[in-house]
Design goal:
The protein is an alpha+beta fold. It is built from 7 helices and 7 strands, in the order E-E-E-H-H-H-E-E-E-H-H-H-E-H. Helix 4 packs across helix 6 and helix 6 runs antiparallel to helix 7.
Length: about 210
């Protein structure tokens, strides 16, 4: 069998990943942080700060009617031969429920008592759930956005059979970790293409079938 070469981003690992609500309840469905700072005693305060900033940006986009169009057009101009991902994203959106709520963005967090160094926060909100990747300043935001697109798709593909996707994500974190083991190995962003994604998806399906 043909096995694609897997290229990883050779910079340090990302800071962390969160799946959470986009309302004042600030409910965290899943989170993982890859650094000692991210897992220290201020973890909850740090998570709340990130969620509050994203909620503000989400509400601004919703009220301005901007949604994701400007972000998408900006990113697509630099993709060129990786347009498979945008076709994939568009197909995912068109097969979703009519009027599906969707926003996305990139935030910068300055160094503070919560963060020794600045952070880049890349997020996508789909139907009231936010998928947030907290990156280091030199991480590639396009790779981060690509990862989130694939991650959202994998979670929905795998968990929607059980009913509420977020209830399943909360109840089965080990299966979320199994997905991350392929899409974000050790917190490293992948340079992905369509062939690699098909390969990873087959691996994910096999591993999750063993857990069932």
């Amino acid at each position: 069998h043909f096995c694609p070469v897997i290229l990883v981003n050779l910079l340090d690992m990302v800071y962390g990943l969160m799946v959470h609500s986009v309302d004042s309840s600030q409910t965290v469905h899943f989170s993982i942080f890859y650094t000692p700072e991210g897992n220290d005693g201020r973890k909850k305060t740090r998570q709340q700060t990130i969620m509050r900033r994203i909620l503000e940006e989400h509400l601004f986009q919703m009220h301005s009617g901007d949604q994701h169009n400007s972000v998408k057009s900006k990113a697509s101009s630099s993709l060129d031969d990786a347009d498979w991902l945008f076709r994939f994203t568009s197909d995912s959106k068109s097969s979703a429920q009519p009027g599906l709520d969707y926003t996305e963005g990139i935030l910068r967090l300055q160094a503070s008592a919560l963060f020794e160094y600045p952070k880049l926060v890349v997020w996508k909100q789909v139907d009231k759930v936010v998928y947030t990747l907290v990156c280091e300043p030199l991480d590639n935001p396009l790779l981060a956005s690509n990862f989130l697109t694939l991650f959202v798709n994998e979670l929905n593909d795998h968990f929607r059979k059980g009913g509420s996707v977020m209830e399943e994500v909360t109840a089965r974190p080990d299966e979320v970790l199994a997905i991350l083991n392929f899409l974000l190995p050790g917190g490293q962003l992948l340079f992905s293409n369509f062939h690699l994604y098909k390969h990873l998806k087959a691996q994910i399906t096999r591993v999750l079938a063993q857990k069932a």
